[in-house]
Amino acid sequence: MCDMDDLDERIVAAAKKRIRAEAAFHSADADLRELLVEGRAAGKGPSHMAKLTGFTREWVAKIAPAPKS
Question: pTM here?
Answer without folding.
Answer: 0.81
